[in-house]
Amino acid sequence: MMLSDKVQSSQEGKIKLQNAYKQAGLTIEKLADKACTSSDTIKRLLGTKDCPNGVERRIILKIAEVLKIKPTDIVDPKDWYPQQIPSEFERLIKDKTESFRGRKFVFDAIEEFFSKNSNGYFTVVGDAGMGKSAISAKYVLDNPEAICFFNVRAEGMNRPELFLKKIRQQLMNRYQLQDAADADLSSLLTKASEKITAGDRLIIVVDALDEVDHESTGNLLYLPTILPENVYFLLTRRPYNQNEKRLNVSPSVPTQELDLRDYPERSSQDVKEYIWLLLNDGEYKQGLSQWIEKQNLSNTEFVEEVATKSENNFMYLRCVLPAIAEGFYNNKPLDELPVGLQGYYENHWQLMGMTSKPLPKNKIKIVYVMCALRSAASREVIAKYSKQNELTVQEVLNGWAQFLQKQENNQSPRYRFYHESFRDFLHRQDIVQAAGVNLPDISAEVADNITGGLFGDE
Fold it and tell me: Which residues belong to any copy of the HTH cro/C1-type domain (predicted)?
């Protein structure tokens, strides 16, 4: 992004520019004089003169400085900050934002914090499934000035060295940083802050701090205790005990936390909006409508009851609503639907026969082997690790489809568990004991197979 690059004013920017110079008591000629440019350039930005090639960034910066507005008040933020989402996170962001609804109160709080402070850390806290990653993804998608890193334990994308590498790449590309290939995070932020233009800010979104693999003492991901001016972090994490705190900053650096659990009414409104969205979605509309009619419910009654059962958990809705639409609960009345995300996991575990007598040891082992693998694996590889036939593996994949993320390319499809909270469920002591599995033995067996080269090129 060079100051000599040319950009166009947006339709909204034309109006804001006109209002700004009039409120400042200036004419086009006087504004041009103060900004050291020509009246024709101002007219091009206002849209009263043709502007096929755009206007240089440096000129827009000067105009914004004179009028005490931001460059992005004149130019669409997506044009001012070319989007540079790392390819590793594109699929995740698309998946998390496809059906995104609500959360305005969260974004309003974030913007208020950034506007009131010259730097700082803003953290969104919430239980598993409350939509923290979706909030991160939506913020990145809607705010091109933000750069990002998403910790994904299941893919091994959760180590400090990877975090630094991805953040460094984004900062070097955006600010054309020199001699920064080996710089640490504090040095990178200092170098970047020197390139931040008037009215701009650098926002770094870091999702799922609770999934970070970091054994050293000090801040997770070596996040700086001191931040340069106009540098902000937007963090998300699950709740932790105070003695588990892994972010300590200088008293001079502003911090704020927003705990989603403290906003039940606003979260409930967002949950209901999401349910209404799926009720009218082409993929689920027919199945949901048929189930609701069979239950002698109105759509409004259905929305209210399911919202209550969800306990404001979007992961619950993401699992339960498609399951209803696909007929999974055809023989269950509304009052027998599971309550909460953990309740849903327990219910599905039972419905899949994992608690029947005798225990289906082969199927249980397949599920736990997939949990131990962590990274996405094909049916063939899962069969090798679990030492079960591929037909049994496919039965398990079909039964647990709503929990799985399916990755398709030129090779065989690969599968991994969609959310860390399901791994947590599988590791609950009562579930482990009832399933009769030995987690250390399964982990050791997987490790032995890796050593033996069974994983191949996957």
Answer: 16-74
Choose one of 212, 229, 261: the last residue of a domain: 261
Contact 119, 253 (CB under 8 A): yes
CA distance 184 to 194: 16
Q: What is the largest CA-CA distance in the chain?
A: 87
Buried b (16+ CB within 10 A) or exposed e, 351-366: ebebeeeeebeebbbb
Q: Report pLDDT digits (tens) over 3-14.
A: 778 888 999 999
Burial of 245-273, coded b for 16+ CB within 10 Å and e otherwise, reads ebbebeeebbbeebebeebeebbbbbbbe
pLDDT in tens, 318-358: 889 988 998 888 888 888 889 998 888 888 888 888 888 88
In a domain, 458, yes or no: no
Over residues 367-392, the pLDDT tens digits come to 888 888 767 888 988 888 888 899 99
Please say whether the beta carbons of 128 and 341 come within 8 A: yes
The Cα–Cα gap between 241 and 398 comes to 38
Order of all β-strands in the sheet with 255-259: 146-150, 202-207, 231-237, 120-125, 255-259
Block residue for tokens 């606003």: 266
CB 44 within 8 A of CB 6: no
Measured in whole angstroms, the distance separating CA 112 from the mean position of its chain's CA atoms is: 20
Q: How far apart are CA 350 and CA 359, in angstroms?
A: 11
| Position 456 in a domain | no
Structural domain includes residue 399 = yes
CATH number at residue 423: 1.10.10.10
| Contacts of 276 by beta carbon, 8 Å cutoff, 6+ apart | 299, 303
Kind of pairing between the strands at 414-417 and 404-407: antiparallel
Strands 231-237 and 377-378: unpaired
Task: Establish if 1 belongs to a structural domain.
Answer: no
CB 222 within 8 A of CB 187: no
Q: Kindly state the tokens that stand for 136.
A: 């991160």
Report yes or no: 8 and 51 within 8 Å, Cβ to Cβ: yes
Sign of torsion over alpha carbons 87, 170, 177, 36: positive
The residue segments making up the domain with residue 411 are: 361-451
Write the single-letter amino acid at 313.
N
Which residues make Cβ contacts (< 8 Å) with residue 225, sequence separation at least 6? 219, 248, 249, 250, 253
What is the distance between the terminal CA atoms of the chain, rounded to a whole angstrom?
A: 37
Determine the Cα–Cα distance for residues 126 and 129; give it in Å rounded to an integer: 8
Amino acid in the structure at residue 450: I
pTM over 0.85, yes/no: no
Q: Answer yes or no: do 142 and 248 share one domain.
A: yes
